[in-house]
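It is worth pausing here to work through a concrete case rather than discussing structure prediction in the abstract. The textbook approach is simple: state the sequence, then state the predicted structure, then interpret. We follow exactly that order.
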Amino acid sequence: MSVVDAVDAPDMSTMVTIGQAAQRSGVPAKTIRYYESIGLVRPARGENKYRAYGDSEVETLRFINRARALGFTLKEVHALLALYRDRRRSSRDVKKLALRHVEQLDRKIDELTAIRNAVLELARHCRGDERPDCPILDDLGAVTLSLPDAQSRRDDRRISRRATRGVPGPWLSPCESSGSPPNGSGDA
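Step two, the predicted structure:
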């Protein structure tokens, strides 16, 4: 080993195993291995070729864990880590990334609120008694399964918006809607 290698080599006596790193960071070992495979963490390898984690790697794992808990995607975590490691970064870039994430969260909240309201509307129209008639099941059965996922999600949002406005549609039982059966034409 050259003098340069000795200076650059991590002190293996202060390194911990993947299990210990998992315990200290709160990230499961399997997830740590995945993060390594996508380049988020780079553990050292001892002479025995086992992964070895120092304080820096454990700190990085905690950083990733916190960012993921806040809903940042792995792509965003990559960007945040790059900014975190760059001491000449501009906080403007970090704030821009965070605010973009807030916009995504707002969209998700809107979608989940619409879904919640649609389910609540369905529940309001279900008598919840001993009879087998159930507008909730009727509505779930009325969804066309052959729609592509993206189209189905768009239709679900459209139906959710209509349901929250009290617009009659397939989510209401025939006696509660305008009396005309759904035509499947997609008119909103």
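Step three, interpretation. The beta strands are 44-45, 51-52. Confidence is low (pLDDT under 50) at residues 1-8, 163-188.
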